[in-house]
Design brief:
Layout: H1 3-19, H2 26-33, H3 37-43, H4 47-73, H5 79-96, H6 98-106, H7 112-116, H8 121-140, H9 148-164, H10 174-189
Length: 191
Amino acid sequence: MSDTTQAILDATRSAILDVGVRRTTLTEVARRADVSRMTVYRHYPDVDAILRDLMTREFTVLFAAIDAESPAAGGDRTARERLARVAVAGVQALRAHPLLVRVMAAEPELITPYLFDQIGGSQRAARALMLAGVRAGQEDGSIRAGDPLVLAQAVLIATQSFLYSATSAADVAAADLDGELERMLDAYLAP
């Protein structure tokens, strides 16, 4: 990714956190990135396109960090246990991520297409992490047989529901839901 693209993404992140997606303009992004408006237009047609790349960048980095930190937590006897724990850690990290918090609070409709119509770059990154976990679990015998991609996609769908629907269960503690997600994934994937 070029330095200019990074600057545009950083400027967009800053603007969205300050004023929200709908009030962020390409002119404001250019000003914050210290580039011309035409430079921004050469890279992106609109703020939504920048937001897609920004979320992919932010969440892919987050997923990689969770994956890298996971072995340090230790205690897992199987790849299945690790996958369930990594999925929960991802939900917890995303639930607290300032960019997602801002978008979900002010403009949740921006997330809707990725729940019903298409898979985005961040979801592909999460699914790749889950796919690696499923394959590792099938190799060590802790995850049942089946198409690894189908199992990873099912884990992604279940995990997303715990992330995006948790606010509808405000009378249930997030930590309690996280525990249920971990148990659910562990049972679903068990041979």
